[in-house]
Amino acid sequence: MRKTHDQKTSQKGLEESMKWEREKGARDRSLEIARALKKKGLPPGQIAEVTSISPSELEGL
Questions:
Q1: Under the phi-then-psi rule, with left for phi > 0, alpha for psi from -120 to 50, and beta for the rest, what region is 52?
Q2: pTM of this structure
Q3: How many domains does the chain have?
Q4: Beta-carbon contacts of residue 31 (< 8 Å; ≥ 6 apart)
Q5: Is the predicted pLDDT of residue 2 greater than 80, yes or no?
Q6: Which of 7, 14, 20, 40 fits 3 for a cystine, CB–CB 3.0-4.6 Å?
Q7: How far apart are CA 58 and CA 52, in angstroms?
């Protein structure tokens, strides 16, 4: 069965939305971990290395 243009477009939009949600979830989790590590007193450089969050972003946590 051939998909129509609208079905293909809808499927692509759904896939992009799901990818964005996964990336946002991973980012939110990294921020959560960074906050916990900062609270425990780890140096910003180590936190940045573990979480891939920049040291300048860590200043705002």
A1: left
A2: 0.71
A3: 1
A4: 51, 53, 61
A5: no
A6: 7
A7: 10
